[in-house]
């Protein structure tokens, strides 16, 4: 039987609950479709940091490299470990080490889900650059703690990095409705963002069938709320994509619905699948985390692994579940009840 090895990193807070939920559904989907998922759990998290002094063992990245894919819950417990330590110790290094340069985040309303907007008929695919830009980690602080303190955070944009993410976006647009929105702030940022706009124009010549529009990030933030139905594929830098995808999450009913795939398009290393949301310390012990974002991310994992049929079945089960009221904002169920409802209608 075809078997895929999956590294499970539940992480912190609700990351653990939603990973359990996603795993139960993935396991049943695999069984129904005639393949096997062989999961190995890793306890890497803020609790692990408190015990060992690091977010993952020194050979952690090399261990992960041997898996077909990684399923992650959420990382971060700011009351105990600063985010600058936990995220730079686990999540961000995985994205970089495995060249998961395309962060793919779909935004649409599942049936029955109450969005905050009047416009409900939208289907947006956000493609976020995931390995460089504003998240390069280059910078420093001098005269720390004094009145003369200076903090520098350098964004690094390489031609190779910008070209490959835009090309990925153009390919997605070509496979969808043929429209690409490229997002910058080139009216204020005159080096990196002007450069990004130039690369966009250069690639546009190679994709005459794709309609390209460049937007500034501020205008795009408003457009996602006022006219989300005018958008198809959005490509943005690491930080701008991060912000836009929380807007995307908000308009699709909340963070509990927003899925995410960190893709290595060359398949030279494993890709990683995780919800957009974090560890949600405010609800961590209530058992009320919505598992739908994690389950949807799991479906994206199966699709990436070549199990498109099983992925479709999971999406269908999610749609049937939300259509009947489970997981929607109108009904505050427990994680376990939503998971059981999805399992119940999974073909
Ligand atoms: P968050 O996404 O954890 O929570 C924001 C709000 O959304 C909270 O009110 C939370 O209760 C709610 N929420 C999130 N997911 C939900 C779900 N599945 N069901 C119901 N409600 C949900 O963002 P935050 O509070 O800014 O961050 C908390 C921690 O998580 C921080 O340490 C942060 O750095 C980290 N974080 C990690 C990731 C990740 O691992 N990919 C992503 C975002 C934030
Ligand atoms: C996300 C998260 C992370 C990011 C944080 C936790 C570093 O917000 O995956 O969207 O900014 O990439
Ligand atoms: Mn984010």
Automatic annotation (TrEMBL):
Pathway(s) it belongs to: Carbohydrate acid metabolism; tartrate degradation; D-glycerate from L-tartrate: step 1/1; Carbohydrate acid metabolism; tartrate degradation; 2-hydroxy-3-oxosuccinate from L-tartrate: step 1/1; Carbohydrate acid metabolism; tartrate degradation; 2-hydroxy-3-oxosuccinate from meso-tartrate: step 1/1
Explain the purpose of this protein: Has multiple catalytic activities. Apart from catalyzing the oxidation of (+)-tartrate to oxaloglycolate, also converts meso-tartrate to D-glycerate and catalyzes the oxidative decarboxylation of D-malate to pyruvate.
Gene3D superfamilies membership:
Isopropylmalate Dehydrogenase (3.40.718.10)
Organism classification, top ranks? Bacteria, Pseudomonadati, Pseudomonadota, Alphaproteobacteria, Hyphomicrobiales
Q: Which reaction does it catalyse?
A: (R)-malate + NAD(+) = pyruvate + CO2 + NADH; (2R,3R)-tartrate + H(+) = (R)-glycerate + CO2; (2R,3S)-tartrate + NAD(+) = 2-hydroxy-3-oxosuccinate + NADH + H(+); (2R,3R)-tartrate + NAD(+) = 2-hydroxy-3-oxosuccinate + NADH + H(+)
Q: Where is the Isopropylmalate dehydrogenase-like domain?
A: 5-342
Reported cofactor(s): Mg(2+); K(+); Mn(2+)
SUPFAM superfamilies from the UniProt entry: Isocitrate/Isopropylmalate dehydrogenase-like
* Protein EC: 1.1.1.83, 1.1.1.93, 4.1.1.73
User: A single Pfam family, by name?
Assistant: Iso_dh
Q: Does the keyword Oxidoreductase apply?
A: yes
Q: Which InterPro entries match?
A: ICDH/IPMDH, IsoCit/isopropylmalate_DH_CS, IsoPropMal-DH-like_dom, TTC_DH
Q: Enumerate the UniProt keywords alphabetically.
A: Manganese, Metal-binding, NAD, Oxidoreductase
Q: Which PANTHER family match?
A: D-MALATE DEHYDROGENASE [DECARBOXYLATING] (PTHR43275:SF1)
Give the top-rank taxon of the lineage listed in the UniProt record for this protein. Bacteria
Q: What name does this protein carry?
A: D-malate dehydrogenase [decarboxylating]
UniProt similarity note: Belongs to the isocitrate and isopropylmalate dehydrogenases family.
């Amino acid at each position: 039987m075809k078997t895929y090895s999956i590294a499970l990193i539940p992480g912190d807070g609700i990351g653990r609950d939603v990973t359990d939920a996603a795993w139960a559904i993935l396991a049943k989907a695999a069984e129904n479709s005639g393949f096997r998922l062989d999961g190995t759990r890793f306890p890497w998290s803020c609790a692990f940091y408190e015990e060992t002094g690091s977010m993952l063992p020194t050979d952690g990245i090399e261990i992960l490299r041997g898996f077909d894919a990684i399923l992650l819950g959420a990382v971060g417990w700011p009351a105990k470990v600063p985010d600058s330590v936990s995220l730079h110790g686990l999540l961000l290094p995985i994205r970089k080490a495995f060249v998961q340069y395309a962060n793919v985040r779909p935004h649409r309303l599942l049936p029955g889900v109450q969005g905050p907007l009047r416009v409900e008929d939208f289907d947006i695919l956000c493609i976020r650059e995931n390995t460089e830009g504003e998240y390069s980690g280059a910078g420093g602080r001098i005269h720390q703690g004094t009145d003369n303190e200076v903090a520098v955070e350098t964004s690094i944009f390489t031609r190779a990095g910008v070209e490959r993410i835009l090309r990925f976006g153009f390919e997605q647009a070509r496979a969808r409705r043929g429209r690409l929105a490229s997002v910058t702030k080139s009216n204020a940022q005159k080096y990196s963002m002007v450069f990004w706009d130039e690369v966009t124009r250069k690639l546009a010549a190679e994709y005459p069938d794709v309609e390209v529009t460049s937007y500034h990030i501020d205008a795009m933030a408003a457009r996602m709320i006022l006219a989300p139905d005018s958008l198809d594929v959005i490509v943005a830098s690491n930080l701008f994509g991060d912000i836009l995808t929380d807007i995307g999450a908000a308009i699709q009913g909340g963070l509990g619905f927003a899925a995410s795939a960190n893709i290595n398009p060359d398949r030279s290393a494993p890709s990683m699948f995780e919800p957009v949301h974090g560890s949600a310390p405010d609800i961590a012990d209530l058992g009320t985390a919505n598992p739908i974002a994690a389950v949807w991310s799991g479906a994206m994992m199966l699709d990436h692994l070549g199990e498109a049929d099983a992925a479709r079945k999971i999406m269908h089960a999610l749609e049937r579940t939300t259509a009947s009221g489970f997981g929607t904002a109108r009904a505050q169920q427990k994680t376990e009840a939503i998971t059981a409802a999805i399992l119940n209608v999974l073909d």
